[in-house]
Amino acid sequence: MIKSYKLRRHLANGFIYLLLAVLGIIWISPFVYLVMHSFRAEGVTTVAYLIPHEWTIQNYIDLFTGAGGTAQLNFPRWFMNTFVVAIFSCIISTISVLMVSYAFSRLRFKARKKFMNVGMILGMFPGFMTMIAIYYLLKAMGLTQTLVALVICYSCGAGLGFQISKGFFDTIPRALDEAATIDGATKNQIFWRIILPMSKPIVVYTVLTSFIGPWTDFILAKIIMLDSRDNYTVAIGLQLMQDQQFKNTYYKQFLAGSVVVAVPISILFLILQRYYVEGVTGGAVKG
Amino acid sequence: MKKILAILLAGMMTATALAGCGDGQTSGDSSNPDSSGTGDAPGLAELDAEGFVDAAELGDETGATIKVWAPDAAVNLTQKMCDAFAEHYADKNISISVVAQGEKDAATQAQSDVDAAADVFGFASDQLDNLINSGVIAECAYTDNVIAMNTEESVKAGTVNDKLYYYPETTNGYFLVYDKSVVSDEKAQKFEDVLAACKDAGKRFIMDAGDGYYSCIFTFTGGVTIDGYADEEQTVQNFVDYDEDTAVATLQAFAQLIKDYKGTFTSLSVDKIASGFADGSCGAGIDGIWDIESDSEKLGENFGATKLPTINVNGEDKAMISMYGYKALGVKSTTKYPLTSAALALYLTGENCQRQRAEQIQWGPTNKTVTEEDVVKNSAALSASVEQSKNSVAQVHITSTFWDPMANLGNQIIADEWDPSNADKTKELLTATIKNIKDE
């Protein structure tokens, strides 16, 4: 047994830090690999070493100018598609989630509990279960292979994700509502003027999750878009770059593309982060 | 999440569904008699020098808008050919758009929504059964022409129950590619020599032994080849009668050789061959015709290709047997313009177009005339492909249960711990593989 408390503490800490460092390296290495090799000049597909021998930004230039290959892989277009879809579905789903949450949190109406339960149960089914049905419903409306279809799919079901924001709204004292009501505010005014300004963290959370959705969703977009490459999103586009026929041409551009996808999400997060932290701590102090 | 959407849309659906379904039904019904109509009148259609059929063959179809699926490498060329087609029948006012769609997913895409599928689509021959069973593909309307123009094997691969379905477009197989500065043309004839040459040069030999598409070489070479289905439902794979001892001896010979050249023989996906040629780590490999452009680009003058080498089994040099498929065009059974589509498919797979593809994008022809021409003879890769087709098993009528057990066999044999001298174990593996493929 080691008697010295100090030594024991150092040993324990040393072990914990070592473990954390190993876990950290394992976790971060794919990202490091991705970013470093997106700047790699030599080689065609994968290489057997970690640090590139030559560095270049040519992969990024090729990705946006289409100079690297001969085929019709139009990354800028896919990027814009995703961006537009993300913005629209972000706006629609944020508003709808918050409104649904507010209604369930503040209003009392018949079958409120039942609706919440139904919402919970529907939310438990995996999203891809209804994919084929969604496809044929969209087809009946003539919307397949369009970006509108994607916006509809990403935002219309969003209201079902009300639980977290409802939980947040529940923590805001009802006394505020009552005070506002006495001052003559309607429910609508209370929502926009009282509750929303106090709910920045949850608004930010909702905006972020709904904005990220279209960038990461692959399977639904793939099913809806079929062969319409002009309407692809980045996720399907990047997968296409890994197709057998493109791998030898587009591998490094694929890596660059994967890095680029992270950019809009990171920017949005950096902008909103301020409010996020502010809101969280503010809420904590008020208890 | 999307459940609520489904419910909402279900409401809308009730309003629009009847109309929607009705449309689908009627267009399907009305086009079926059309397509069978063309099927009723087979026979040898007259082709002009460029491969066009007489305008009368297009019937009264005018203003046709046709979508064609072609893989990316062929989109531009196919669009040019289609433009030529539209121009030839200028008074028919045909407009054709070529959309990029890889052949390997074509059948899946066409089956998932046949209305959104192309009227004329390129696909790989092993998807034919799916396309026929789902009713997506129409029968070939110019059977006699296709039979007269193309190699017997390519036609046979597209014939099911004595009916020809597709229009053969190109060959689709793999063979030996090598760096001539590492493996001489002479040494490329024997697997032993190829591996020895690679080892001497300190370079890899790459083959994707963990993929059933390539690892079937091990069993096929031993005489264990497949022959269609064993049952009506097309669920059980049929194997030809084979000599188990020969098969086991062949598997052992492969395993021994791979063990002897451990470190040289590497099982990697085929796209590593081109990158290996580029960085000088690869001396030779088994690669498909679709990668030839990038392989030869990386090696330039030193690029060599030939049929798969022989392997010495108990003193006898046996030619390696591969899986060999075709890429073909199919006409959608529900197309609005069956006559124009069929004429277009025939034109696109005709002698003229096959020659252009061989010259410009290195697609191996199935056309008898083009196969004999200089364009094939002067290209190492195209000749290798034609040569390999003679030592091959057609990639048709394969059950979905074929690939995984075959991949497993490949992985087992190349594994470090595998003992090549153990005949009983090898026999056990072969029996288990076949049993699993047959799903017994």
Layout of strands and helices, then pairs:
The complex is a heterodimer of chains A (287) and B (440).
Chain A: H1 5-37, H2 58-65, H3 75-106, H4 112-124, H5 131-140, H6 147-156, H7 163-171, H8 174-182, H9 187-198, H10 200-216, H11 219-225, H12 234-241, H13 247-286
Chain B: H1 3-40, E1 65-70, H2 72-88, E2 95-100, H3 103-112, E3 120-124, H4 128-133, H5 143-149, H6 152-157, E4 159-160, E5 163-164, E6 167-179, H7 191-201, E7 204-206, H8 212-221, E8 226-229, E9 237-239, H9 244-260, E10 265-266, H10 271-279, E11 282-288, H11 292-299, E12 303-306, E13 310-313, E14 316-319, E15 322-331, H12 338-348, H13 351-361, H14 368-371, H15 374-377, H16 380-390, E16 392-394, H17 403-414, H18 423-438
Parallel strand pairs in B: 1-2, 1-3, 7-10, 7-11, 15-16
Antiparallel strand pairs in B: 3-15, 4-5, 6-11, 6-12, 6-15, 8-9, 13-14
Helix pairs in contact in B: 2-13, 8-9, 8-17, 9-18, 10-11, 17-18
Outline of the structure:
The complex is a heterodimer of chains A (287) and B (440). By secondary structure, chain A is an all-alpha fold.
Describe this structure as you would to a colleague:
Chain A has 13 helices and no strands. Chain A is an all-alpha fold and 287 residues long. The model of chain A is unreliable at 282-287 (pLDDT under 50). In chain A, helix 3 runs parallel beside helix 6 (147-156). Chain A has helices at 5-37, 58-65, 75-106, 112-124, 131-140, 147-156, 163-171, 174-182, 187-198, 200-216, 219-225, 234-241, 247-286. Chain B is of the alpha/beta class and 440 residues long. Chain B folds into two domains: 42-171 and 326-380, 3-Layer(aba) Sandwich (D-Maltodextrin-Binding Protein, domain 2), CATH 3.40.190.10; 173-323 and 387-438, Periplasmic binding protein-like II (D-Maltodextrin-Binding Protein, domain 2, 3-Layer(aba) Sandwich). Helix content of chain B is 47%, strand content 18%. Chain B has helices at 3-40, 72-88, 103-112, 128-133, 143-149, 152-157, 191-201, 212-221, 244-260, 271-279, 292-299, 338-348, 351-361, 368-371, 374-377, 380-390, 403-414, 423-438; strands spanning 65-70, 95-100, 120-124, 159-160, 163-164, 167-179, 204-206, 226-229, 237-239, 265-266, 282-288, 303-306, 310-313, 316-319, 322-331, 392-394. In chain B, the strands form four sheets. In chain B, strands 1, 2, 3, 6, 7, 10, 11, 12, 15 and 16 form a ten-stranded mixed β-sheet that branches. In chain B, strand 8 and strand 9 (237-239) form a beta hairpin. In chain B, helix 17 packs antiparallel against helix 18 (423-438). The radius of gyration of chain B is 24 Å and the shape is globular. In chain B, 51% of the residues are buried.
